[in-house]
Amino acid sequence: MSNDLLVLDQVRLDIPAGRDWRTLVENVSLTIAPGEAVGLVGESGSGKSMTARSVLRLAPPGARLSGRIEFDGTPVLDLGPRDLRALRTRRIAMIFQDPRAHINPVRSIGDFLTEAMVTHLSVPAREAHARAVRLLADVGIADGERRMRQHPHELSGGLLQRVMIASVLAVEPDLVLADEPTTALDVTTQSEVMAILDDLRRERGMAMLLITHDLELAAATCDRIAVMYAGRILEVQSAETLVQTPRHPYTTGLMVSRPSIDRVAHRLPVIAGRPVAAFEAGAGCAFQPRCTQAGPECLTGRPPLRELAGAHVACVRAEES
Amino acid sequence: MTEILVRADGLQKVFGKDMVAVDDVSFTVARGQSLAVVGESGSGKTTVARMLLGLETPTGGTISVCGRVRQGRAGSAERRRRAREIQIVFQDPYSSLDPLQHIGDVIETGLALHFPLTATERRTRALELLEAVGLTERHAVMLPRQLSGGQRQRVAIARAIAVEPKVLVLDEAVAALDVSIQAQILNLLADIRERTGISYVFISHDLAVVNQISDTAIVMAAGRVVERGPTAELLRTPQEDYTKALLAAVPRPGWKPRRRTPSPSGSPAGTP
Amino acid sequence: MSWPLFLARRLAALVAVLLVASFLVYGLLYLVPGGPMAFLLGNRSGSPEQIAAIRHEYRLDDPFLIRYFGWLGDALRGDFGQSLVYRQDVSDLMSTRLATTGLLVLYATVIIVVAGVGLGVLGALRRGTVDAVISLVNSIFLATPTFVVGVLLVIVFALGLGWFPVFGPGAGLPDRLYHLTLPAIALSLGSAAFLARITRASVGEELRREHVETARSRGFSQSHIVRRHVLRNASIPVVTVTGLTVAGLIAGSVVVENIFALDGLGSLLVRAILQRDFAVVQGVVLVLVTAFVLINLAVDVCYSLIDPRLSPGEAT
Amino acid sequence: MKARLGPLGLATVLLLGVLAVVTACAPLLAPQDPNQPDLFNALAGSSGTHPLGGDALGRDVLSRLMFGARTTLLGPLFTIVLSTAAGTVLAVTAAWAGGRVDAVISRLLDVLFAIPGIVFALVTVAVLGPGMTGVVAGLAVAYTPYVARVVRSAALRERNLPYIAAAWVQGRSAVAICSRHLLPNLRPIIVAQSVSALGFAIIDVAAISFLGLGVQPPTADWGLMVKNGLDSAVRGQPMEAVSAGVLIALVVVAVNLLGDRLGRQEGDLR
To answer: Is the CB of A187 less than 8 angstroms away from the CB of B246?
Structure first.
């Protein structure tokens, strides 16, 4: 589809490990339409975070990134340094998991918020300041003037994450990459921050790629969800249908093994074994060793994503489950 | 009437001059009961756990375990006796094991402290315990860094139950684990309780996990108990606003994140 | 905590440290085998009158603590007693030599900061050959003692090439600087290498920080990131080490002055030790320790200016 | 561990090994009596019988270097053993006990910190008279706070890890926890720290000998040889000063490399 904002096609990421390479992301294909929110859900080692970083070419030094990443028709992997910076400056912005580590501790909140406006957009300092205070108000921080003078260590995690969101809004990007934006926060704060992010994103028509381990959170805030495991996407569906009819055994497993506040199971149905990273997976379907549905056909080759009743699923036995 | 194993009465902990971490907290744990202590960061729930274990000294109130009041610094014999009453599993599976100690050794050290066993008996018992938590003989000779987070947490559980305590405190013991591993550990904990009749004090911020593992719960905020009751009731019909807010914030089918009206300070309680 | 309170606290701590250190220095000299008398007389044999005079002058008949506080009180007024060897006031002996040592340390400090920080930043930013060469040179300088560097410099540049004078402090500022060039280089090489290493590690570590990733994700150029987000953050350990090394120069000057026959505090101290000149040793050591402690205080104040987390005056 | 040594590491180990052998067997290996003056050899250049020539008194420079290794290296070694032992005990005690004990120990270390190492050594030399005893005693005390500060902060970090709390809760004694858990985990830091301190100690001890306050003539010592060599150099024969000086630098380079490597390995294990 030509009107997609972001297209990932067979994206692969390897990082050097001694003399070897370790695959973290393996053949990930995904699209995001303008204004759309897509959730990328997976456990540790699934490669979800690295996939998001690949979009901005923020992979670790020495990493090998291949495949096709296209943003608004521009191939991101071919961009020169200047164009790449322009892309990062105005078009795509990232929100990180741990705002305390991801905001410079020795600079004030005001510095952090106005830096991009002054440097990139040539906004006069005074105006940038006024705009930053308005942005702080937008994210629910009323006493902006005081906060602008403070330093990160004087703010709580929830406030800092809102500052991070404000800094993203400042450049009005087309796409926000949100990497576990609420994982480090308390539940009530998570709800608040997620709501702010969701509201403001919709108001401004920004698309979002939400990276999270929390399927329920993704379902509540995203239009579509992609489930990742061992560096691959196993399933893509609209959020609504995914929670009702998950197609991949892994997705089903994730949903039923999570305890709920509404019901108590005598024993939780579990997925045996532990999640693996792409480079740890053997031949065949990466999930096969943990899968209750697995048969001999699952051992031959990685199953590709295929369409099944409006969903995309990478399982040869999807119809049977 | 079941036997009360832990009785905390008016617990208080003040750090430094005026940092009140825990204020007037009381609860009991009966034999075989699973009590959840629910709260967000800064609620004082971990301090409560540490006081139960004697890792912090309360500045006020009393704790009695198995009918004996715990007071003052204990000598080594007294500490060994207390060890048989109550044990703990910590949140972080990476730092709760000595990186240089083999897994089998971790269990055997605990056994050697408390039971008059020969070396062979000790080894056999250690293997039994590892098997009870889903590990094998193969793991006994490994170092912690060769194990995954979930496996390490199993070792920590085996270490705790090795000394056969009556109460096990689990301080956010599944919070750091992946969803699929979390379920495995929760099932393991349920099995152990069913088999041994051990009591749990389950410290957690996660209401869904609490719902699964506990039969009674207390909700803490800013060092105080806000609400208490049977877990199912507490989650179905919360009485206090804080509990309601906590419950409303849990993502679940049909849930939407909600903005509280922007407060003038713009910050939740407890921030400067 | 506010700034005045912060400074008051630091100063109080400083005074306490100085008090204990001075007590240590004063007291140690009484541990000498044979007691203070043996020390004061050294190899000389004294007549009963001389002994009596010394006992009187050094108040040896008073209890130890009274003697100590008497000495300390005098020292605070700038009176460190009289040198047994020179028959001169210790304070006079020191004041003429203070300038030489001070100038030497200052000169070396400039070299250390410029070369150390410059090479360290360069090494961190230009990984590869440049970094490897700098690291190699650093390892060598770091391992070569000041006195070896000094002797080699004398052999090569003074004796061999004849570019610099071998010995002596010179007269007039330009000539003094000229005379002090080799000593200052000898004094600074090792410390400059150490500072370069710390700077490189610190800048390198800061470049890997998460907040730098944020800056990168926001499209800032590498030079902007280095200027705005790396250098200031990386300067905390650099300031610490600069302070420590400059304080260390005070000790290093003892050695360098000896090689280049400079008449500074260091050579005074060494001679006083060899001649067992009691009052001079105490005086010089007290001055050196005071300078050391003052520099450390300056470092503490610097941190608070650099890092808002350590800054007084803001509620945390 | 051995497999990851690399060529540089191998050279380092080799050099230190050769030095250890020379230090132990100097009387067997030295071509000449190091203290035998020979006026014909005074300030002589390289020759068959005297590969590195002679000093101002005509003593064989090579033999003096071999014998000199003993005082030059053993002094610093003693210094480091003493300061590491004292520093570790103080640090672990402070970190474990915390509270007032920690405060007292920390203040004590602060005071020692305020006196530069070499100055402290000069003071002890002033008290005990010139010689190795005073130098080692003074430096050992002066180095203690450097070891203690690093070990204390590492011990504090380690002590607050849950595995220590778990051992405590299991009823293990404080002594057992410190010796079985804390110290083994601190060992890499202690070793790396004391090896890099050894480099500084070699430099400081040689510097004091150079000042004429350490090892006393006629005993051979590298620092002293640089001092005497300076006079020879002024009289046109730099061999003694250069060879002794370069040797000191080489040993310290080797020790520092070893320290770095140990430090990095420690980092890898975490």
So the answer is: yes
